[in-house]
Specification:
Blueprint (H helix, E strand, L loop, with lengths): L5 H24 L6 H4 L18 H18 L1 H6 L1 H29 L6
Length: 118
């Protein structure tokens, strides 16, 4: 049983060794000449107006997570539409329940003001 995993272990060791050797060779051979321009953050060719380490408002992350959540749930409509004929009326009712739950969540988020950017 363990012999089946030996090639996988060898592959993992070779891949890890290759990655580590590339990083080590880069540090040893590559030149390191830091200048003020190289160390400054690049923002579309413009000089910085505010420090680059400022915090984003939490609303940005909340809206991003909500977008991902609703986007992933919307992707489930595609397989359902492909299988709709084989699912018959029961599949249609199940999707209506799913959409109702999704709509309740969306209305809740909307009423809480999580989608307001201001």
């Amino acid at each position: 049983m363990i012999q089946a995993y030996v090639p996988l272990l060898i592959l993992a060791l070779v891949a890890g060794g290759f990655a580590a050797s590339n990083i080590l060779i880069t540090f040893v051979v590559g030149p390191y000449r830091p200048t003020r321009e190289k160390l400054s953050p690049y923002e579309s060719g413009m000089t910085e107006i505010v420090p680059p380490r400022q915090r984003f408002p939490i609303k940005f992350y909340v809206i991003a997570m909500l977008f991902l959540l609703f986007d992933i749930e919307a992707v489930s409509f595609y397989p359902w539409s492909i299988l709709l004929r084989s699912l018959h009326f029961a599949g249609f009712i199940e999707m209506l329940i799913f959409v109702a739950i999704l709509l309740v969540g969306f209305i809740y988020v909307w009423k809480k003001g999580a989608l307001d950017w201001e």
